[in-house]
Amino acid sequence: MLSRRTFLKTGAASVLAAGTFTNLVSMAAEPTKEGKFIWGNLLHLGRNMWGDAPSALVPKTGKLVCDDAVWEKITNEMQAVGMNLLVIDLGEGVQYKSHPELAVNGSWSIEKLQKELKRLRSIGIEPIPKLNFSACHDVWLGEYSHMVSTQKYYEVCADLIQEVCEIFDTPRFFHLGMDEETARHQSTYEYVVIRQGELWWHDFLYFVEQVNKQNVRPWIWSDYCWDHKEEFYKRMPKCVLQSNWYYSRSFDPTQSKYVQAYLDLDKAGYDQVPTGSNWNNDENFEGTVEFCSKNLSPELLKGFLQTAWKATTEEFLDRQLTAVAQVKAAKEKLEGTK
Asked: Collapsing DSSP states into helix, strand and coil, what is residue 127?
């Protein structure tokens, strides 16, 4: 097996050099399928994405943390309030044909997942896949999360992206995650992996290339721009849909780089789906919609995404339904002012 250093020097890797590759993906700046204004939600099918204790190798819970009945209740309520898109955090939640070793007890078969995708579409909800390739949130990758930036890692990630795009029948978007890959966010981890500089860009652009190969538009969390502004706006391809996220109450860009990022992304010409959450307060989503709808260019604002960041289980059903209700309230308020 090639070492990471050797691989980065190969002809295949050189195609991904920053300048050449950025020019390549910039040609796909416009999405092929626009779709409706997004009122979206994120639900977890897989949940094995935070921390690595107790085992430093493959810290699997052994069982999928997702209740089918709760999933159906939440998605039916989404339809009832007029939401039209669901980002599905897949992780270990699927029995992938290319890598069945990633499945846990209860992971959905491809047939079950495709049946659910059909049901979602039948009730007006567009399903979008998400596989988080951030080294902070890739425990679901099992042993491959300890092979980041190796040839085997690239092969596995490419396999999964291709297979998922096929399962979802060429979705409009593919969410790559890529958030929180910092020392601070892994301070309690036993095994810490942080890509930075050229390696971060190499791997990120590799994922973008794999998604573009499937005629699908890449989508990411935008927080890399918070502490890497100059390089982010110089090198981030316009084809990548951006979801900056901010979960507090106050929306003062002079006091928060996280809020300022919405304005910076807009000024730089990026399509955005701003993301709010009710994980620590109930005012954030409405505040996100109000601030962004007033301050972002209408042609670049593609919609909004809500994230409860709770498991899809009975324990958190009330919180999940509250998140949906907050979307309904914000949606009605915005549409009433147009």
From this structure: strand
Q: Each residue of 274-318: pLDDT tens digit?
A: 999 999 999 999 999 999 999 999 999 999 999 999 999 999 999
The Cα–Cα gap between 222 and 235 comes to 13
Pairing state of beta strands 217-221 and 275-277? unpaired
- The answer to whether 286 and 329 have CB atoms below 8 angstroms apart is yes
- Quick one: CA dihedral 277, 335, 222, 127, positive or negative? positive
- Dump strand ranges (E) for 138-262: 173-175, 217-221, 241-243
171/167 Cα distance (integer angstroms): 9
Rounded CA-CA distance 252/161 in Å is 38
N-terminal to C-terminal alpha carbon distance within the chain: 58
CATH architecture designation of domain 4-28+36-337: Alpha-Beta Barrel (3.20)
The first and second tokens of residue 234, run together, are 């110089």
Task: Decide if 20 contacts 66 (C-beta within 8 A).
Answer: no
Q: pLDDT tens digits, residue range 34-55?
A: 689 999 999 999 999 987 655 4
Q: At what angle do helices 317-337 and 284-295 cross, to 10 degrees?
A: 30
* Structure tokens, 143: 């042993």
Closest among 90, 31, 32, 86 to 64, alpha carbons compared? 90
Question: What are the tens digits of pLDDT across the range 10-30?
Answer: 434 443 444 444 444 443 334
C-alpha–C-alpha distance, residues 215 and 32, integer Å: 8
**CB-count burial class (<10 Å; 0-12, 13-18, 19+) for 113:** buried
The DSSP element (H or E) to which 42 belongs, if any, is: strand 38-44
Instruction: Tell me which amino acid residue 74 is.
Output: I
Angle between helices 151-167 and 197-213 (to 10 degrees): 30
Domain ranges of the chain: 4-28+36-337
Query: In sequence order, which residues have a C-beta less than 8 Å from that of residue 193 and are 6 or more positions away?
Result: 135, 145, 146, 148, 181, 186
Residue 197, pLDDT above cutoff 70: yes
**Measured distance CA(33)–CA(27) in Å, rounded:** 15
Quick one: tokens of 265? 């992304």
